[in-house]
Amino acid sequence: MAEIATRARVSVDTVYATRGRKPLLLREFVETAISGTENAVPAEQRDYVARVRSATSARDKITIYAHAITGIQERLAPVFLALRDAATTDQECAAMWAEIAKRRATNMGTFAADLRATGELRTDLSDQQVADIIWSMNATEYWVLLVRERAWTPAQFAAWLTDAWTRLLLA
């Protein structure tokens, strides 16, 4: 919070008064990073979600989502990791981390069902398994490992994620 106040050239008290405690500020950062706008946009109103839902083939849905998540991770990673780390010592941040993880899992369940509706998914994988695979591989930690630590470009990551999900999930 002190670093945020310093960068904003205000007092820590001003940050608390205008934006709230750390968990609230982190939530706002997470939501705006995911949305890619100055204000949080609910998932069902995001452009990439509409494009995924309107695509007719599983391959197109996967491609759209893999590219979207790559763009999101470029904005989200530092904030998400800060929330994850804060969750180890702050109960409010831990509750928020758990809530966001649950929401991500629910959203991946919706995505898995959307993929299943194309008739192109492997029949030996349940929707829950499909959702879990996507949920794990779209995690910030995964992106950080490959893009930040192994120096992949975002374009390489998006192409690889598309290929991996296509090979893992489609019949």
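[next item in queue]
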Amino acid sequence: MPRGLFITLEGLDGSGKTTQIKRLAAWMEKRNLHPAVTRQPGGTATGDRIRPLLLDSRSTGLAPMTEMALMFADRAQTIAEVIQPALDAGKIVLCDRFTDSTEAYQGGGRALGSEVVLELHRLICGGLQPDLTLLLLPSLESCLHRARSRNERHTEQTGQDEGRFEQEQDAFYRRVWEKYRAIAAREADRVVLIGGNLGIDEVYEQIVEAVAELLVTAKHTTV
């Protein structure tokens, strides 16, 4: 059985990833592709216990290396429990964030650098790479405004606080934003950068175009 396809969505909080991954999954369901959809952090019972440690505003004093180690612990579990079994079964996997997020947030935002992130990825994740990464990168100002407003609504509606990263200063997010752009330039064969303050439908159209192209290419390579 041919290996499945691994597609990730990346971007700053407030970039619209969650909305777009839901729309992409629905697009695939209509075509009987039945993707496995997951997220990081979270997506497994273990990951859902790690997620509050990383995102809750009350998690104060986490050292950058601790934060990164928790990210990779969550990722290793998701690979073992969700991603690799689905790929081995020939399924498409849609994942909201993967190692690019760690390189951007911990490598860039926390200034740990890319080298340590990529080495941990090699050791812990076995070098598993997405077949396609859709990087949503509106302006930094737009992302920050949307993310902070969304987290306030989320806390009011659910009582769950996931605003720890949104408390960071704008300089932190500038480093994250710039690191994402550097990743896109370095990994141009894998990463499709969707930049600018586009409408939801405009972003969706670009996503579907990129995914459709991947599906056609994958079909030809397995014939």
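[queue empty]
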